[in-house]
Amino acid sequence: SSKADPAAIKAAVADLLALKAEFKTVTGKDYVAPGQGSSKKKKKGGDGGAPKPKEGGEVSKKQANKDARKKAKAEAQAKAAAEREEKRKAELAAQGTAATVESDASLFGDAPLITSHEMTDKVWVDIKNLSPEMADVERYVRGRMHVSRKQGKGCFFLLRQGLYTVQGVLFQGKNVSKQMVAYLAEIPPESVVDIRAVIRVAPELIKAATQSSVELHVLEVHVISKAAPVPFQLDDAARPDGDESGAGVGQDTRLNYRWVDTRTPANQAIFNITSGVGGLFREFLHKRGFVEIHTPKINMGAAEGGAEIFHVDYFNQKACLAQSPQLYKQMVAACGGFEKVYEVGPVFRAENSNTHRHLCEFTGLDMEMTFKEHYYEVLQVFSDLFIFIFDQLNRRYRDELETIRAQHPFEDLKFLQPSLRLSFAEGVAMLNEAGFSQDPNGDLSTENEKALGKLVKDKYDTDFFMMDKYPLAARPFYTMPCPENPEASNSYDFFIRGEEIMSGAQRIHDVALIVERAKAHGIPEAGIQSYIDAFKHGAEPHGGGGVGLERVVMLFLGLKNIRKASMFPRDPTRLTP
C-alpha cells in the first residue's frame, strides 16, 4: 500500500481526540482501549461511581442498582461506538484519505458505455457559453482533454470543445482523494470527458483558455471515451504558418488522419466558415424568392462538352457522374415554370489536375433565373449575393476569422459596392499594357488570372470583381452570342484574389440556335435530344452560374491550398478517408 498522507493522519487523530472527550462527557470516565484498562485497585472508601444520596435521605438499594445498570449500558455503547470509529479512522488514514471520502469512488472513473439506456435531468452547458455571469452555478460539461498537469496535491487541465477551451482545477481535500486527483491527471489527451463542476470567476485571466475569465472547480470527472495515442500532437498541427520553433505536420499526414486534424481550432473555424457560406447562399436566395432544387448526379453521357467525365456502369447502360446541374437548372427555371432556382450539391470532374486549386469532387453552389430584358439583371443578383456573403461572414464569424488568422495569417478581403465589372477586352488591355501576352479570342491562363487580379487590386483597390463578354469560342455551346460582337458572348466570370470562382452566362432559349451552337462544338444532336426537347414548348430568357464552394472559402480566407477547405478532399491521388 502507498505511504499514508500526513494531512489525512492528522485529521483522523483530531477526530479521535474529539470522540474521547465526548466519551468522558457521557460516562464521566477517561476512554481506555480494550485490553489496556488500569489494574490498580480502587481507593478504599471510593464510591465506585454510585449515585450520591439526595438531601434529606439515602438512595434505596434498588434504585442504586438500576442506575448502575443504566450507566454501564451507556458506557458499553459509547465504548463500542468509539472503537468502531477508531478502526475506521485508522483504515482511512492508512489509505491517505480523509474521513469524508466514503463515496469517493462514485466521483471519478471510466463511465459505463452510453447505450441510450436513460435520460436524466442533468443540466449541461457548452464551453463557449461559460462566463462570469454563471459564477457559483453547478453544471455538467463535456469536452476533450486538451492537456493536464499535476501540481502538488492538485491538477490543472484544459477542456476543449470545438473552438473553445476552459481551465479546470481539482485539489485534494474534502470529498477529493489523492486517487481522484491522480486519475484526472492521467487522462490521455483527446479523451472525451464529462465534468461536473462549479463555475468560478478566475482570480486572474487565464491566457491559455478562450474562456479566460472563468474556471471549473471539479466535483466529478468521468471518462466517456479514452483516446489512444494520437498520430500527431494537436499543438504541432495548430502551429502558425512559418513557425519553425517546433515540429510541423505534413499535409498528407493531416489528411490521412483527418478526424484528428479537424480538431485544431483553425480547422474547426474553417469548416464553420464553409458551413456559413452555404447557409448564407441559401439565405440570400430564399429571401429573393428562389426555390432550392435537387438534380440527378448520374446521367446519360456528359452534361456538357469540355471537361473529362467519370464513367459509371448503370445496369448495363453507359452513364457518367454529373459535371454540373446546368442543363437541369435550365429545364426547371426557363422551361418548368419555377423561374428562379438554386442547388447545393456535388460536382464531379475527372481532370488529372494536381494543383493547389483543383479537386475531382467539390460542392457546387448553382443558381439559375429568368430575366426580362438583359442578362445584367442576373449579374446584379450575383453581385448582391457575393456582397451579402462577404459582409455577413465578417459580421457573424468574427471569432472564427480571428482563430484562422492566428494560424494562417491573411488580409481581409476587399470588395466594392457595387461590384467592379470589367469587359474581357478591358482585362486583356490591362494585361497587355503591363507586359503580359493575352490572346483577345482565348481564355485567360492561370498565370494571367493572377496577374490581372494584382493589376485590378492596384488600380481599383478590390480583391473581388467580375469580367464579362468572353470570347464565344471559349464558352459552352448553350452560351448566348453577343449581339454587338459575333466573336464575343453574353458570358462572365467572377474572381477573388486573382482566381476564378464562378463562370456563368445568358443561356440560349431558342431551339434552332441551340442546335446550331451544339453542331459548332461538335456535339451530336442525339446526345442532347432531351435537353433540346425541353425548349420546344416555350422557354424564357434566362442566365445563371456555378460557384465552387471550397474555392470561395480558400480564397476568402487566403488559404494556400484548396485541400484545407475540403473536409475529405478528392484529387487524382486520394480516395480515402
From TrEMBL:
Keywords, comma-separated and alphabetical: Aminoacyl-tRNA synthetase, ATP-binding, Cytoplasm, Ligase, Nucleotide-binding, Protein biosynthesis
Domain WHEP-TRS span(s) in chain numbering: 1-37
Basic and acidic residues bias: start-end ranges: 52-91
Gene3D superfamilies per the UniProt record, alphabetical: Bira Bifunctional Protein, Domain 2, Nucleic acid-binding proteins, S15/NS1, RNA-binding
Chief localization: cytoplasm
GO cellular component terms, semicolon-separated: aminoacyl-tRNA synthetase multienzyme complex; cytosol
Pfam families: tRNA-synt_2, WHEP-TRS
GO molecular function: aspartate-tRNA ligase activity; ATP binding; RNA binding
Enzyme class: ligase
Localisation per UniProt entry: Cytoplasm
PROSITE patterns, A to Z: AA_TRNA_LIGASE_II, RTC, WHEP_TRS_2
UniProt GO BP: aspartyl-tRNA aminoacylation
Aminoacyl-transfer RNA synthetases class-II family profile domain location: 281-577
Entries under CDD domains matching the protein: AspRS_cyto_N (cd04320), AsxRS_core (cd00776)
EC number: 6.1.1.12
Family to which this protein belongs: Belongs to the class-II aminoacyl-tRNA synthetase family. Type 2 subfamily.
The protein's name in its UniProt record: aspartate--tRNA ligase
Source organism phylogeny: Eukaryota, Sar, Stramenopiles, Ochrophyta, Dictyochophyceae
